[in-house]
Design goal:
By secondary structure, the chain is α/β, with parallel strands linked by helices. It has 18 helices and 20 strands. Helix content is about 40%, strand content about 20%. The chain is globular. Bound molecules: succinic acid. This is Succinate-semialdehyde dehydrogenase.
């Protein structure tokens, strides 16, 4: 495959969506999409008044239209309404964004850590000051309930705060010399321009988790947000400018994904690609980055097991599994994909869990009490349907839900399936929707075997009150993240990332800095020369 071919496949559709579904998704314009509802208009008006509803790309500190004037529509997945038309950019704009990032690198990387830290801290303050508006923007373009969206702003902003602090801790080392007249040093230096390709499921947090450490280290960035959710990225970039982060340090291009991808992958000036998205796309990016031997970090798909042992506290297990499964309507890469339940607690758990799932209110993310929003688009809905149909055709039983929601659009009923087997699609691949498949196991060894029987290795959850088992199973699980008696484990202070085919590298925590640094060894010889 040519490099251009690689990029083309890689960038069509950013998060967990098969590229082949995209053409139909883009022409999926519901009949009532032409008129903006009063509720949405007032939200967009407020955002426009606050200067946060940006629709152009950001290159070298300037807001810019696509060079050929093309735009693309951004839809509200809950209603199908068009929220805004944003610039549909491609290779030419991306090359200019790379050049401006390359120029800015010269000065940004030479600032003191304290100066970079101040800029990041100011950016954090502004993100927090605009938490409500940013949350509304996330709900509008991504669909997650407003409370969860505001929670994402909090989570996302904290990466900027954390890395503002971490900027000051990029320490080198002195190695004891092997000869008396020599001194050996290790320096850590920013890798250069980074291309950050981000998904739609966390329109803010997946950007800040990459851009925070990049900027802290002295790198500059070209961000390519998902075509489905570019508005939050643009608003965050506007706040970066207001925070005094110099022009060219943060650039944003969106639109023609294959062309943008090609430009990022082939440019020798881009020294790092950081990506969150599907495993299939991640593999193409790795291949594409090989041409210019870029540093790559990838946060890819999961197939998270959530293991409930007989000795678990039932309430803790139900609440933990609920949070791990239904966050963002099941659209996160760390969402529990398979709920493995030991035979002694299976019936009780299935019953209590189904009752809890039944109480989840589905609706437009702006609705009172809503905790489950729509799926991102028709392709996502069809994927969930296909997985459930496959499971049912192979003997799974629908305990709850199992079909499209009466609200229409891309709403799907929160679903619990029992009698699920390892060979069903829903156990093999990420469903990325509100479907909880229950699988029964007898022994700890069997649970570990079932949990590890996948190429994925991102997150796993266990529920048990046995301390020894906690250690034994945590160590045996081939996963990058393990939650014990806890369903929500993501935080800016801990390393996030997968093993096996779930990815490379870590985001968040002090380890997230390493992804944007090069190590340089300096040998100072002939110390005693006068
Ligand atoms: C993801 O789904 O990619 C990120 C989830 C998280 O940060 O918790």
């Amino acid at each position: 495959m040519t490099l251009s071919g690689v990029a083309r496949v890689a960038f069509v559709g950013s998060r967990r969506i098969f590229a082949s579904h995209l053409p139909s998704m883009q022409s999926y314009t519901p009949a009532f999409s032409r008129q903006m509802s009063v509720g949405m208009k007032s939200v967009t008006d407020r955002l426009r008044d606050s200067g946060l509803l940006r629709t152009q790309g950001l290159i070298g500190g300037k807001w810019i239209d696509a060079y050929d004037g093309k735009t693309l529509e951004v839809h509200n997945p809950a209603t199908g309404e068009v929220i805004a038309n944003v610039s549909c950019m491609g290779g030419k704009e991306t090359k200019d964004a790379i050049s401006s990032a390359f120029d800015a690198f010269n000065s940004w990387s030479k600032l003191t850590a304290a100066e970079r830290s101040k800029g990041l801290r100011k950016w954090y303050d502004l993100l927090m000051a605009h938490k409500e508006e940013l949350g509304q923007l996330i709900t509008l373009e991504q669909g997650k309930p407003l409370k969860e969206a505001v929670g994402e702003v909090d989570y996302g902003a904290k990466f900027i705060e954390f890395y503002a602090e971490e900027a000051k801790r990029v320490y080198g080392e002195i190695i004891p010399a092997t000869l008396p007249d020599r001194r050996l040093f290790v320096l850590k230096q920013p890798v250069g321009v980074a291309g950050a390709i981000t998904p739609w499921n966390f329109p803010l947090a997946m950007i800040t988790r990459k851009v925070g450490p990049a900027l802290a280290c002295g790198c500059t960035v070209v961000v390519k947000p998902s075509e489905f959710t570019p508005l939050t990225a643009l608003a965050a970039a506007e706040l970066a400018l207001q925070a005094g982060i110099p022009p060219g340090v943060v650039n944003v291009v969106m639109g023609n994904a294959p062309d943008i991808g090609d430009a990022l992958l082939t440019s020798p000036q881009v020294r790092k690609i950081t990506f969150t998205g599907s495993t299939a796309v991640g593999k193409k990016l790795m291949a594409g980055a090989a041409g210019t031997v870029k540093k790559v970090s990838l946060e890819l798909g999961g197939n998270a097991p959530c293991i409930v042992f007989d000795d678990a506290d039932l309430n803790v297990a139900v609440n933990g599994a609920l949070a791990a499964k239904f966050r963002n309507s099941g659209q996160t890469c760390v969402c529990a994909n398979r709920v493995l339940v030991q035979e002694g607690i299976y019936e009780k758990f299935a019953d209590a869990f189904s009752k809890a799932v039944k109480n989840l209110k589905v609706g437009d993310g702006f609705g009172e009490g809503v905790v489950q929003g729509p799926l991102i688009n028709k392709a996502a809905l069809e994927k969930v349907e296909t997985f459930v149909e496959d499971a049912v055709s192979k003997g799974a039983k629908v305990l709850l839900g199992g079909r499209r929601h009466s609200l229409g659009m891309t709403f799907y009923e929160p679903t619990v399936l029992s009698n699920v087997k390892s060979e069903m699609l829903v156990s093999r691949e990420e469903v990325f929707g509100p479907v909880a498949p229950l699988l029964c196991f007898k022994t700890e060894e069997e649970a570990i075997h079932m949990a590890n029987d996948t190429n994925a290795g991102l997150a796993a959850y266990i529920f048990t009150n046995n301390l020894q088992r906690t250690w034994r199973v945590s160590e045996a699980l081939e996963y990058g993240l393990v939650g014990v008696n806890e369903g929500l484990i993501s935080t800016e202070v801990a390393p996030f990332g997968g093993v096996k085919q779930s990815g490379l590298g870590r985001e968040g925590s002090k380890y997230g800095m390493d992804e944007f640094l090069e190590i340089k060894y300096v040998c100072l010889g002939d110390m005693n020369r006068k």
